[in-house]
Amino acid sequence: MKIMIVDDSSFIILFCRQALEKSGFNVVGEAYDGVEAVEKAQELNPDVVIMDIALPKKNGFEATESILELNPNTKILAISALDEDWIREKALKAGCFDFLAKPFEATQLINQMENLVGDSEGLKYG
User: What is the DSSP letter of 73?
Assistant: First the structure.
């Protein structure tokens, strides 16, 4: 399974990358804004995208919709410090697989990824 991380915070990207790689997941790329996220998704064709909602240039909702137009099989996990019901609902409506509120623990992220793997035929570690 190929994973891409999208966040405007290099700290969050590093945190997610380290947690995922320590657990055996394959992180293939990262992006710092919504436009870059769509470009990198087209180039890398990740199975999973961890997508921040509040992004410069193109927000996470718009980037999610654009990525899913390119590849409808991509699973997108929305992350955001804006833990509001309407944000969750809008993320799911945009096509996100699930939502994880910041701040989160590494174990929460890994649990979400393992749930995603369990729910998706053909997605495997590595």
Answer: T
